[in-house]
């Protein structure tokens, strides 16, 4: 297998291959793959948060972390939705969160904020998605 294909393997599979490697050269190779996978994931996460903070402001970096965790957690989950539809839904959900997050507190019955029409629009979307 190529290095790129080995990067796609599950971490448990890589650890098992390190343990069961017949030659020390194989163990070093799979150890290198595991380390590269961890470094690339760290670089991706750091870059994502920095880009999110640049695009939406530093005060929204916590939301960027939440979006990143959703992307990482649900990338391998099978909900029975096709890839194309799931990407469309993901973009829609994050657009709603990004553009209407300031109006979200009224959904919990705490208060109305800002524009009454925008708040009503967000509440309709909120209940359509969750309802």
Describe this structure in words.
With 131 residues, the protein is mainly α. It has six helices and no strands. It has helices at residues 3-7, 11-20, 24-56, 61-74, 83-100, 116-130.
Summarize the model shown:
The protein is mainly alpha-helical. The chain is built from six helices and no strands.
Mean pLDDT: 78
Count of helical segments?
Answer: 6
Order of helices and strands: HHHHHH
Query: Which percent band covers the strand fraction?
Result: under 5%
What is the count of β-strands? 0
Radius of gyration: 21 Å
**Main sheet properties:** none
- Overall geometric form: elongated
User: Kindly, what is the distance between the CA atoms of the first and last residues, rounded to a whole number of angstroms?
Assistant: 46 Å
Detail the poorly predicted runs.
104-110
Helix content: over 70%
Q: What structural class is derived from the secondary structure elements? A: mainly alpha
From the structure above, extract its key features.
mainly alpha; elongated; single chain; 131 residues
How is the secondary structure organized here?
Layout: H1 3-7, H2 11-20, H3 24-56, H4 61-74, H5 83-100, H6 116-130
């Amino acid at each position: 297998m190529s290095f790129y294909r080995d990067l796609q393997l599950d971490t448990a599979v890589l650890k098992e291959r390190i343990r069961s490697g017949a030659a020390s050269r194989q163990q070093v190779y799979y150890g290198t793959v595991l380390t590269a996978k961890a470094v690339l994931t760290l670089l991706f996460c750091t870059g994502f948060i920095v880009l999110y903070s640049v695009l939406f402001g530093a005060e929204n970096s916590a939301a960027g972390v939440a979006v990143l965790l959703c992307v990482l957690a649900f990338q391998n989950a099978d909900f029975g939705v096709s890839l194309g539809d799931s990407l469309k839904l993901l973009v829609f959900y994050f657009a709603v969160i990004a553009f209407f997050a300031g109006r979200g507190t009224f959904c919990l019955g705490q208060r109305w904020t800002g524009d009454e029409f925008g708040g009503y629009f967000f509440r309709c979307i909120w209940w359509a998605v969750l309802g």
